[in-house]
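FOLDING PROBLEM:
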Amino acid sequence: MGIRKFWKRKTFANQLIFVFLSIFLLHLIIVQMLNGFYITRVVEKKLVNSSRQTLRQAALNVENTLSSYEDLTEQLINRNDFQRCIKLLDEAKGQEERQIREEMEGMVKEMMAYQTQIRCFSLCTIRDTIFGYDRMQLDLLYQKINDLHMEYYEENFFENTTIVEGKWTKTAYLDRWGTQEYYVYSFGKRIQDWILNKRLGIFIVSIEESSLAQICEAAQISHNPGENYLLIVDEDGTIISHRDKTLLGANLQDQEGWVLEGGEYSVGNDYVVIQEPLENTSWSILSVIRRDYMYEALQEAQTLLWMVSLLLAAVIVLVVVYVSKKMSKEVKDIVDTMQEVGEGELSAKIGVNQDERNELSLIANGFNAMMNKVNEQMELIRIAGKREKEAEIRALEAQINPHFIYNTLDSIHWLAVENDQPEISQMLSFFAQILRYQIQKSNTIVTLQEELQYLEKYLYLQKIRFVDSFEYVLECQDSLLECQIYKMIFQPFIENAILHGCADLSHGGLLKIQIRDYDPRHLVFIVSDNGCGMTEEQIEAVFVHREKGRDAIGVENVLARLDMYYGEEYHVQVESRQGRGTTIRTVIPKQWDISHEKGGIDQP
């Protein structure tokens, strides 16, 4: 309750500032929480996936490298001339042996010409005759077999090697030339005479470890090995390739922090290890990424985000203070103006900047427009009251005139009867009934049957007036006779058709009035004649632009009445051809239950 009372006592501006700042701070806290818990994990996952793709490419490069050396070895040891030299090497002596070794050395040099990473070859025949070639011993007349290869031969390391596949060894120290120490990994394979199906010996090729180190270095996602480096191990965990050459040949699990669980390596919580096996070998390539490196860019972004957020908070405070003060002033102006209006000052207006389109300016504009409308309505009411009084006076003055005319016509009618003039008597009787029908309230609602009785008498008199120059047909569906319409709503269309369609004809004119269903909710009133017709310009002027004139007797008035009575629920369609006549179709809603005062007329 105390907080609510405190809140209610604050101004609108202070409430607005507090709400904006609260929302901003809440948004900031949520964003930082997402950064800490969600985005961090997303970044790690994305970086690991990217590193895995890079590692996979590095693995393919290693596989291709190993495969190329295997193919090279296969091509050499399967050469007929090379196998011929191996067979002769066991028996040759002296000069012949020297020639055979030179021939074999030539073939080896040819194979090594474009393989700069291959350090040396050697072979041992089934009679333990050994031949070797070392790239670093070019200046020696008789090359010595290095200790590493001799160790392999003495230990029968490749005796269990399959004939087809061969075998890769772990990386080992080879020798030292100057200050450079050389580490190599080797591939050994049995030499087989496939024609005689006879074993000829063992062949070993050694490749410098730098060939693998270069592939690993190229696949690092960071040039700093402290942030990311790659290494290769065999199935026992022996290190085949590593940036630290002192670890070559050592077991990875013997190194501090390294653990192998379920076939996957890990090295503490500070590093992420990604592992990819190498096909056709028992080796695996590992990528070691320091976690701090993965989050370094994210932490910089978070720091920048905090700085930008605090700057935005300061800007928001200034903007909100300015906007809230301005809005408070506009609200106060609106309230003060309303109080003036409440005290009777109806001409009071709210000062509005026309360039603004905010809600308060819309309220001010709406209030000013409402007051303008109120003042206009009050003026209209004043004028209408004045006119109503004037109309009452004119109505009292003219009240006697219609009754006087009707009574006079009735007297003439009886005089015609007494003088045996039945046609004149009939015309006067019809005219008196029409006059009585028209005198009654003009906007009274009548049935179609009552309106048709009036139109029948009206057409009878018009036909006599124009000396039977036209005939007329009046049709209405029986189901519509009790339908209700406004009195004399269509009479101007009929009068227009007679005066401008049939009046200029000496004979043969035809006027047709039809009333029928249009759809379940509407009826259509059709007036057609075979008179002179109308041009498109006349139709446009009379029925679209509603211009007043000699050619539009009563039409403008009846269209205005249709607008007032039916709004958008009616429509008028006009078809006309000059010299062929005109048809006007008027569709209006059906009305059945409207109470009305009958203004009926006697049957003829």
About this structure: The first strand starts at residue 118 and ends at 125.
